[in-house]
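Example 9 (inverse folding). The structure is encoded as follows.
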């Protein structure tokens, strides 16, 4: 595992060292750690060649709102898993989503900027607040809770 303690900018090769997600479900392109273990900013470049745009909706492509929640979940998982010794031995299983709001459609060409903050951590339970912005306009937000668990050995 790479030592991330001194690093603040994480590109895709760093992200996949921490998160178990792979194409087509790794939804974060870049991260900037603002306060390790407490807050970060993630970037998602939304492009027309993403597989979900073929059916959602063919003549009016809109990113499914649930994927903005998944992006927040992946950012929250990175925030916590980047702090453990062997992140690929752990996983974050999200258990609740509260106060989710979708304020504006996300379309191809948008760049999402996701702000994730750890609200509370007690034992292995974490609560996060995430906000997604496009061009400094809030497009989605939610509170998410997750448990840090051991990943099954293969």
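The amino acid assigned to each position is listed next.
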């Amino acid at each position: 595992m790479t030592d991330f303690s001194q690093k603040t900018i994480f590109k895709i090769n760093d992200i996949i060292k921490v998160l178990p997600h792979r194409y087509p479900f790794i939804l974060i392109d870049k991260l900037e750690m603002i306060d390790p273990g407490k807050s970060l900013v993630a970037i998602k470049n939304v492009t027309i060649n993403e597989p979900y745009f073929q059916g959602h909706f063919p003549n009016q492509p809109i990113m499914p709102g649930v994927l903005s929640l998944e992006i927040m979940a992946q950012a929250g998982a990175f925030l916590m898993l980047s702090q453990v010794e062997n992140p690929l031995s752990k996983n974050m299983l999200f258990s609740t989503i509260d106060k989710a709001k979708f304020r504006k459609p996300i379309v191809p060409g948008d760049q999402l900027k996701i702000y994730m903050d750890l609200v509370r951590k007690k034992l292995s339970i974490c609560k996060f607040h995430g906000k997604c912005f496009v061009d400094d306009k809030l497009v989605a937000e939610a509170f998410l809770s997750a448990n840090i668990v051991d990943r099954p050995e293969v």
